[in-house]
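Task 17 of the worksheet. Students: predict the tertiary structure of the chain below and write it out as structure tokens. Keep your answer in the requested format; marks are given for formatting as well as content.
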Amino acid sequence: MGFLRWFILLLLLVSAVSFGCFALTGQQRFKRFGLLVLRGTLFGAFIFFGVLVIERLR
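Model answer:
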């Protein structure tokens, strides 16, 4: 469980670095990559924490 939490934080950091590169260079590929990673990370995080909440309610 702890590994997945760190992995989610790592992916959010990758997304932030990508947006930082976009801000510095203005290249659209960094923005697209950052949005792709962010969308996938949020989707995975919602599923992960949703499972934790359902498990906790049982």
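Marker's comment: DSSP finds two helices and no strands in the chain. The helical segments are 2-25, 28-57.
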